[in-house]
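agent> fetching stored inputs for the coenzyme A docking request
agent> found them:
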Amino acid sequence: MIYEATSHRGAICARVLATLPQWFGIPESNEAYRRDVESMPMFVAREEADEVGFIALKRQTPFAMEIHVLGVQPSRHRQGIGRALVQRARSYSVGVGARFLTVKTRSPSRPDQNYLRTLAFYEAVGFVPIEEFPLLWDAENPALMMLMVL
Ligand SMILES: CC(C)(COP(=O)(O)OP(=O)(O)OC[C@H]1O[C@@H](n2cnc3c(N)ncnc32)[C@H](O)[C@@H]1OP(=O)(O)O)[C@@H](O)C(=O)NCCC(=O)NCCS
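agent> prediction call returned; pasting tokens
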């Protein structure tokens, strides 16, 4: 079941990111995500009493919504939860008048096993690569912008 979270967004984000150290291993970044999501549209996947994944969105322009952060607990990977969260983000974005959904992830020009799986996920759910930004984050982490037309 996926619901829109309107309270405890930071705490839910922090709990899920703590299970994903290979992707979210920098404490200061995780803290920034925890703060950021408090004021963002956020959708949570819950199974029984457990919050197993979430997606938080940022309105970049009147036309474009961005996935700010997305995570699913590793024990629940490959069960369709990420796809369902993106689907919910799509319908929310269409509902508020956006025409594009974007996301930035690590570029395969500097391959990392974990982020190659993330890239495979984004491609599988319909994103296409648009542009690389080699120094947006830092030279070790080139950013790839991906886009989906809504
Ligand atoms: C990326 C992530 C959210 C995907 O969530 P998920 O619930 O495991 O994904 P789904 O089960 O919905 O997968 C949908 C499709 O994506 C593709 N996919 C997902 N994980 C994949 C992997 N590890 N390798 C190859 N393809 C993959 C598959 O085509 C999959 O469909 P299938 O299982 O029917 O073959 C999850 O792996 C995650 O939390 N990763 C760590 C954090 C992260 O990368 N966040 C996003 C960047 S900040």
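agent> quick read of the result: The mean pLDDT is 97.
agent> awaiting further instructions
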